[in-house]
Amino acid sequence: MPVYIGKRLLVAIPTLIIISIFVFSLQKLLPGDPVLAMAGEERDPATLEFLREKYRLNDPVIMQYFYWLGGVVTGDFGISLRTNQPVLELIGDKLPVTIQLAVMAMIFALVIGIPMGILAAVWKNSWIDYLANLVALSGLSVPNFWLGIMLILLVSVNLGWLPASGYESIFVDPVRSIQTMIMPAFVLGTALAAQLMRHTRSSMLGILSADYIRTARAKGLSPWEVIMSHTFRNALLPIVTMIALLFGELLAGAVLTEQIFTIPGFGKLIVDAVFTRDYAVVQGVVLCTAVGFILMNLIADVLYVLLNPRLRATL
Amino acid sequence: MTVVETINAAPARQKSRAWRKMRANRGALVGLGIILFFAILAAAAPLLPIPDPAATDWSALRKAPSAAHWLGTDDLGRDILSRMIWGAQASLMAGVFSVAIAVFIGVPFGLVAGYFGGWVDQVISRVTEALLAMPFLITAIALAAFLGPSLTNAMIAIGLSAMPIFVRLTRGQVLAVKTEDYVEGARSVGLGHVDIMLRYILPNVFAPIIVQATLTIATAIIAEASLSFLGLGQQPPAPSWGSMLNVAKNFLSQAPWMAMWPGVAIFLVVIGFNLLGDGLRDALDPREA
Amino acid sequence: AELRIGLQDDADVLDPAQSRTFVGRIVYTAMCDKLVDISQEMKIVPQLATEWNWSQDGKELTMTLREGVKFHDDTPFNAEAVVATIERNMTLPESRRKSELSSVEKVEATGEHEVKFTLKSPDVTLLAQLSDRAGMIVSPKAAEELGANFGSHPVCAGPFKFVERIQQDRIVLEKFQDYWNADQVFLDKVTYLPIPDTTVRLANLRSGDLDIAERISASDAAAVKADSSLTYADVIGPGYMAMYVNVGNGARAENPLGQDKRLRQAFSLAIDREAINQIVFEGTAKGGNQPFPPTSPWFNQNLPVPARDIAKAKELMKEAGHETLDVELQHANNTTQTQMMQVIQSMVAEAGFNVSLRATEFATLLSEQTAGNYQLSRSDWSGRIDPDGNIHQFITCEGGINDVKYCNPEVDQLLNDARASTDDAVRKEKYDAASVILADDMPIIYLGHQPYAYAIDNGVTDFAPSPDGMIRLVGVKNAD
Amino acid sequence: MADAPVLSVQNLKTSFLVDGAWKSVVRDVSFDVMPGETVAIVGESGSGKSVTSLSIMRLLHADSSRIDGKVLLNGRDLLSLTEKEMRGVRGNEVSMIFQEPMTSLNPIFTIGRQISEVLTRHKGMSKQEARAETTRLLEKVRIPNGKARFDDYPHQFSGGMRQRVMIAMALASRPKLLIADEPTTALDVTIQGQILDLIKVLQEEEGMSVLFITHDMGVVAEIADRTIVMYRGEQVEAGATEDIFLRGRHPYTRALLSAVPKLGSMANRRWPTRFPIVDATTGEAVEPEEVADTVGKGKTPILSVKNLTTRFAVRSGLFARQTGSVHAVENLSFDLFQGETLSLVGESGCGKSTTGRSIMRLVEPTDGEIYLDGYNVLQLDQIGMRNMRKSVQMIFQDPFSSLNPRMTAGASIAEPFIKHKLGTTREAREKAADLLERVGLSASMMNRYPHEFSGGQRQRIAIARALSLDPKVIVADESVSALDVSVKAQVCNLLLDLQQSLNLAFLFISHDMAVVERMSHRVAVMYLGEIVEIGPRAAVFENPQHDYTKKLIAAVPVPDPARRGIRRGLADDELKSPVRPFGYEVPSRRYREVSAGHLVQVA
Ligand SMILES: Nc1ncnc2c1ncn2[C@@H]1O[C@H](COP(=O)(O)OP(=O)(O)OP(=O)(O)O)[C@@H](O)[C@H]1O
Ligand SMILES: Nc1ncnc2c1ncn2[C@@H]1O[C@H](COP(=O)(O)OP(=O)(O)OP(=O)(O)O)[C@@H](O)[C@H]1O
Ligand SMILES: [Mg+2]
Ligand SMILES: [Mg+2]
């Protein structure tokens, strides 16, 4: 297994290079001039030209790419056109925020989605099943902005329980940090919970009709044991893959949520960067998320194999 | 019944068995009903006695539901009912076709990656990872710029971005199923890879794919709105549910119904597809009564 | 007392020489004093400069500086500091202030507290430029030390000094005890919180997390007014909303709308500006047909905002030989724009224009507009104090932002003359003359003027919205 | 017996929802099981034996089945208990051994965990205690090296080993009543005997009652006090075992008993012999004729296996380092000629299935050469493999898991035929229908899915599937083990007929020595992955040389009720395990030729 993991980490390098080339070329295809986009209303041609030179935007694309790559190798991801900050520093600032949000949202999703899926499967076609499905699917269809704003109005404005928006670092003031993140994490988590619920339910149903569940019942195990250890453990396989994928969705969904709750995370960073054509930031963030995906998928794959003894020999 | 009759009746019966199970499944029927309802509405929009969805009425801005406007009016005084009906077309198409694209590309790749493993898997999986890491926004803006604003292109963009999930999900399931004895059995009777994949593995990995597809429909409908916002997809004043929601966002407290109806419609369609998906899943599973 | 202000966006670099954003200017208003300021009446008034004089030929500006002023780092404010800052603005490679100061030949200290600007050619707009970022004097010591990185810890001479900034989260300032007008500063701390969503901004205000929310949306105005714990305030800004017609920018100008002014006039006549104001802005905006709002002294009263006239529009169309005309209109993809464009689309349809809308995100819009890849493009100008800033660069043949590529020597002449005169009456005459020509040629179809609207917690007193959209905090009190 | 019955089944009727209609598969079944008594249910394959036992335990899918009647356990009606009360019954008072051990074990839990679960659940043991007890149980059911195999997963076990795991699981809680559904089909006769002894001991010590479902009349004769005969969903006869055996009245009973193959009945025959066909309505048997010689000796063998070795890595620890290997097949060589049947017999877990799977290249052999029809199987490319598989077919030991659960029986059988382009779809379906009829099923079953069949029916579907390609070689792994004697006779005759007409060669893996004797030309005896004796059928059966062969033949049960209660004396011989540490040196073997073609391992 360590060999397998090592190999996977090695192939990650070409993957990352492909991704960066991909992003780089797409950027070049995008309409919109970074310098112009950044200039806003102040469009002095001399300054624009200076900036183009400064950020090497006049060089051939290939050169730009290699220049950038050369920087990356030495740990220099360039600087943001928009704020003049080093990209690495920006990422360093936002990453903990996003990770915190993602983890909390995932916790919500798991805590809500999986038990609901299990209940729905066990009581298939009963009112519990219907209710769980309705709740889950409404969580999926209710737009994040609506839920977010409603929560702010209810919880913050009317009840005054939680801060309406903003962010505090978990290292500075953990309690407030958690408080500010509860609502966004919940909002972000609902859609994921829905997906987890549906997958858990379906996967559980597939297993529940297997013969070995009959064996487990014949042993006189309690429904809890039959369901949790015999069925759920087997049902976990597609769910593990799903969870890794959902982290990707978390990033995408985070944009709107971060916007509503004014959380200075990755989502907002990348959206602003794309809209202002702040390419150094785009590249840096994409690379960083790609690493995240690769790790998540790797973990999912390893877990997958560990959960399935028949696959273990393949590691 | 003679042997020969039995034989000839067989294929038909096999299909009709799944079909009969579908028909007996109340949930699936309700789901189908909901979808048909919206699909027919969408198709019949030009024939229905409803106002022009783009007709503005400055004297009836953001009016709550009333006898004149059953579902109220929007920020430009347009009839929401009419916009809902006309918007159904774009939204359903966005939902269904982009998911179809994702499924029809993603599932085969996942199947091949999981089944063959080795370098095929490596290549497909790594490319998938690259696609996953690609920000949707960039793809969308680039597509919008190069292909121009059309619903078709929006569906392609959404479909492509939803595809990696199907690749990964399918691949994972295939890994598990391919260790089953019946796959070995199929190999031992000398079936080719394609047959094994299509007839032995695919049917046994279909459940999570159906689930994911029915879920993705919801995200696709909502994503269409953000794309039309970027200049890809349905352009104003032509309505879609997603873009109606988008506008409604600014009037949540002044005109809550503007967000409510498209929300309800999306919810219903999602429920519909999920119920249908569940029905399909049960019908295709011979073990389910 | 502390004051928390909800901003619509996050500021960019906090260096007056490099900054570009509107919200950045809001922050500077509290942090960086300028040589001169703008009054509520949009008049130039003293701030760090107490007096100024133009030479007879309009090529020299002498300013007397306030005494006893200190920067936040305790360096004294004097003529040297002014010279250093202005030179920095003019020479720092990253500076975005170069064009604003392009008329300046040199600046020199003529005394401990007196500076003299020498101009290449007469330019009265310089004063207006000095009332903004170009005239924000920064500590020479800090500027020296930090160079282009000044934004990481800006040091100015305003009522509040920089404490910390977290990107996209907050900017914190605290009272500068040695401020020259410290007696009038009643706040100990100011926090700016960028909250892009207007609904959320308002919700934060209601929940007590904010004291002032800037640029609240028009649709929320009524609700704010109805809320007894909040105050609503607005003021029409100096900017304008307009549609740019491609009349000469490349191949895409070759179309009836770009070539025939009657069609443009018809288009304009088909628009009901007051209705737009009511529908999109709930009556908080102002209809307009010139680069200056009707409330501005520079507005040409002889060209009142036209009422909608479909009959005349159709007539003009017919004259130009068109029954109907297809027009593509690009606009930025925010919801208010989209709403407004749909209103216009449906209004002009009655005159026979088939408008197809193309929503694009802003960066694309901008580059398409510069490149001339558009027929009709909708965008806003945030406005400048001096009339020149609202018109010269858009319409003169060599204008830096002349994206429509309109070129009329007569107009150029008028606008250049207006720039050179220090006599307001003369200038007004020139602008009036130019506006008549422009209203006929109509390369830019002006639509109206947006307000700056604020929602303020009742605990905050003595806050008055400024017409330039800045939040001036001297004199403002907060009870809670 | 004055005691009240432990189990009393009255008028049991079970129906399934098939294609939207209720179809009864068990009707009007009534019987009692007294304390300490063993009752056997015998009957035709598909007659409802398994369904009866599942009905008693209420383990049928609730939505698609209906149970009527009464099932009294110590006077309590199980059918009216709540699910919660039922839980105290299942696994505790009554435990059950399922017919198909592969699908009945949870693939992702270790063997040990699945057994010890019963102990922690019902006997309140701690984890360690349960572990120790489980290891003991594994030894009792003769699984070698139980301690080490505690942490193995079901797929690492051979068919018979899995079955023994099921047995251990059922016996773990020392139930009042044991329902055993064909618990020994996958076991060789020596181990079968030991398991039967184990059951008898428990019966004596704990007063356990047993409801025993089996096709092996020898086993019935040996252990059953009373016997129930089922036929087509009904109980046609019940009574004391002697009565049934000697004075069975129902024609089916008589048919059943007269069809039982007896070891030694082939003493004077040279070639395999068809089974007598018994008319189920009259019970009359027709004595069969010997088949002609089909063996293509002299020509090159159709299948030639040389020094075949297959090992599985044993891994342990966090990083799954390899610490040893299972030497499942070790240095195996034999030839198989056209028209010949070579039987592979041997202890459960000795590597028979692995041999078959290696030949099919379903597992990659570690070493050796395999020639099929002259081609080196281990060097074939994709296309070569596909063609190779047209001429050699394998019938898997576990028919259920080897059938695609989402494909109807008809489709499963017809598919290889269509895919190898042997005919049109229509022809394929006709062929499938024909094959179904020939293995004793009806063509109308084509549209059913695997889970809707009984164990024996599924086995026949697997046979039909392998036959659909008209292969040259068939590896038949325990292919008739789940069939009742009459059907078994029918299927074996079919195989013999095909051998006659098509010159088929069989590698016939079986534990049923009587069938082996009847079917084979030559016999190979395997032990711990190696062939210890190989030779012509008559030579091996009449003159066994190797100790293990002798033991095997001696252990075959005889269908004579008089032998009831015999005891072999619990095995005290040491269990041998094929698991070897890393770097184990395989000793080289020598063989002695006893007579022409009769070889025996000497060292
Ligand atoms: N789920 C089901 N749906 C429909 N029919 C079924 C189902 N399960 C079993 N059957 C049918 O019920 C009958 C009895 O099956 P059962 O498994 O009890 O047979 P059996 O006596 O155990 O046979 P065998 O000896 O082959 O195992 C068979 O004809 C079978 O086809
Ligand atoms: N995939 C595997 N991984 C590890 N060990 C295995 C695997 N498959 C089989 N074995 C081991 O190989 C040995 C031989 O197994 P095999 O299935 O060939 O036995 P068999 O002779 O068919 O027995 P039975 O008569 O019980 O079916 C057993 O000890 C088994 O545990
Ligand atoms: Mg059975
Ligand atoms: Mg075996």
UniProtKB/TrEMBL annotation, chain A:
CDD domains recorded: TM_PBP2
A cellular component annotation (GO) from this entry: plasma membrane
Localisation per UniProt entry: Cell membrane
Transmembrane parts of this sequence: 9-26, 99-123, 130-157, 177-197, 235-261, 281-307
Domain ABC transmembrane type-1 stretches: 95-304
InterPro entries named among the record's database cross-references: BPD_transp_1_N (IPR045621), MetI-like (IPR000515), MetI-like_sf (IPR035906)
Main location: membrane
Entry-linked Gene3D superfamilies: MetI-like
Pfam families assigned: BPD_transp_1 (PF00528), BPD_transp_1_N (PF19300)
Alphabetized UniProt keyword annotations: Cell membrane, Membrane, Transmembrane, Transmembrane helix, Transport
A molecular function (GO) term: dipeptide transmembrane transporter activity
Membrane topology: Multi-pass membrane protein
KW Transmembrane helix (keyword) present: yes
PROSITE patterns associated with the record: ABC_TM1
Family: Belongs to the binding-protein-dependent transport system permease family.
Identification of the protein by name: Peptide ABC transporter
Organism: Pseudorhizobium pelagicum
Automatic annotation (TrEMBL), chain B:
Topological category with respect to the lipid bilayer: Multi-pass membrane protein
UniProt entry keywords in alphabetical sequence: Cell membrane, Membrane, Transmembrane, Transmembrane helix, Transport
Domain (ABC transmembrane type-1) ranges: 88-277
Listed GO biological process terms: transmembrane transport
Pfam families, per the entry: BPD_transp_1 (PF00528), OppC_N (PF12911)
Keyword flag Membrane: yes
InterPro entries recorded: BP-dependent_transpt_permease, MetI-like, MetI-like_sf, OppC_N
Top-level taxon of the source organism: Bacteria
Cellular localisation: Cell membrane
Transmembrane helix among keywords: yes
GO cellular component: plasma membrane
Transmembrane regions listed in the UniProt entry: 27-48, 92-118, 130-148, 154-170, 205-223, 259-277
PANTHER family named in the record: OLIGOPEPTIDE TRANSPORT SYSTEM PERMEASE PROTEIN APPC, PEPTIDE ABC TRANSPORTER PERMEASE PROTEIN
Family as reported in the entry's similarity comment: Belongs to the binding-protein-dependent transport system permease family.
Protein name per Swiss-Prot or TrEMBL: Diguanylate cyclase
Organism: Pseudorhizobium pelagicum
From TrEMBL, chain D:
Pfam families per record: ABC_tran, oligo_HPY
Listed SUPFAM superfamilies: P-loop containing nucleoside triphosphate hydrolases (SSF52540)
Topological type in the membrane: Peripheral membrane protein
Keywords: ATP-binding, Cell inner membrane, Cell membrane, Hydrolase, Membrane, Nucleotide-binding, Repeat, Translocase, Transport
All copies of domain ABC transporter, residue ranges: 7-257, 303-553
Highest taxon in the source lineage: Bacteria
Reactions it catalyzes: glutathione(out) + ATP + H2O = glutathione(in) + ADP + phosphate + H(+)
UniProt-listed Enzyme Commission number(s): 7.4.2.10
Predominant localisation class: membrane
GO process annotations (BP): peptide transport; transmembrane transport
Intracellular or extracellular location(s): Cell inner membrane
GO molecular function, one term: ATP hydrolysis activity
A cellular-component GO term for this protein: plasma membrane
Major enzyme class: translocase
Function: Part of the ABC transporter complex GsiABCD involved in glutathione import. Responsible for energy coupling to the transport system.
NCBIfam families the UniProt entry points to: PRK10419.1 (NF007739), PRK11308.1 (NF008453)
Family, as annotated: Belongs to the ABC transporter superfamily. Glutathione importer (TC 3.A.1.5.11) family.
Subunit note: The complex is composed of two ATP-binding proteins (GsiA), two transmembrane proteins (GsiC and GsiD) and a solute-binding protein (GsiB).
The name this protein goes by in its record: Glutathione import ATP-binding protein GsiA
